[in-house]
Design goal:
alpha/beta, Rossmann fold, seven-stranded parallel beta sheet, globular
Length: 255
């Protein structure tokens, strides 16, 4: 059975997929809690949307900021019944030449914050026997991505975590979904990756977000948004591993 949601908390809501999640959910009448570091951008976005909006500026790699968002997810006065863990960061380069602290920060945001926010949201959702968690992963979670080693590893965690958790809570009325986008024109691809995959594999943020929302509402554990990439990666066990390496190299502009 497909679910509908009354209030969603979206992390990384100031741009890219996060902004698009906010726009599409608002258009469906959902109240929103918008989370990102850039409070000015959140305020500007909130002014453009037509539903009830809460703006919660927070840095999820900071203990105080993360705790504030966890507390909001536990609030029963205005319960959140859809958590969208969209905040994430990615950079490319040889792992041994990238700053170690930057790689650790990537793990803190892409993995630890996502896990902790999910942990905070689930008790109320399972108690109500209704809710959804949509974790934005990446096609990089299922194919090798050298020069984006830590990023790909964090997204592999997100996909496995989401699929495993979906199996745990599926009988409690809560849906957990990993969204695996391919390349799309967002700030992440503009700043972190020089993507050289053919345009066949690219999708708009609008299309990716729409597929993600449909997937979590339907209770799908994993949603690969690009059929072409799904064939090239998930069914890639039928093709030489070397070809998957070529796809991964081009995904981050090294092919």
């Amino acid at each position: 059975m497909k679910q509908t949601y009354n209030r969603a908390l979206v992390t990384g809501a100031s741009s890219g997929f996060g902004e698009q999640f906010a726009r599409q959910l608002s258009a469906r009448g959902a109240a929103l809690v918008l989370v990102a570091r850039r409070g000015d951008r959140l305020a500007k976005l909130a002014a453009e949307l037509g539903t009830e909006i809460e703006v919660l500026p927070a840095d999820l790699t900071d203990a105080e900021g993360l705790a504030a968002v966890e507390d909001r997810l536990r609030d029963t006065a205005k319960p959140v019944d859809l958590l969208i863990n969209n905040a994430g960061v990615g950079t490319s380069g040889p792992f041994m030449h990238l700053p170690a602290q930057g790689e650790a920060d990537k793990v803190a945001l892409n993995v630890t914050a996502l896990m902790r926010l999910t942990h905070a949201a689930l008790p109320r959702m399972t108690g109500a026997r209704h809710g959804g968690v949509l974790n934005v992963s990446s096609i990089a979670s299922v194919t090798p991505v050298p020069w984006a080693t830590t990023y790909g590893a964090t997204k592999a965690f997100v996909t496995a975590f989401s699929e495993n958790l979906n199996r745990e809570v599926r009988r409690s009325g809560v849906h957990v979904t990993a969204l695996l986008p391919g390349p799309s024109a967002t700030e992440l691809t503009a700043e972190g990756f020089d993507n050289r995959l053919p345009r066949l594999f690219w999708q708009s943020p609008e299309a990716i977000v729409a597929r993600g929302l449909a997937a979590v509402a339907a209770g799908k554990p994993v949603c690969i948004t690009s059929r072409a990439l799904a064939f090239a990666t998930v069914t890639g066990g039928r093709m030489p591993r070397a070809l998957q390496y070529v796809i991964g190299d081009r995904l981050i502009g090294r092919g």
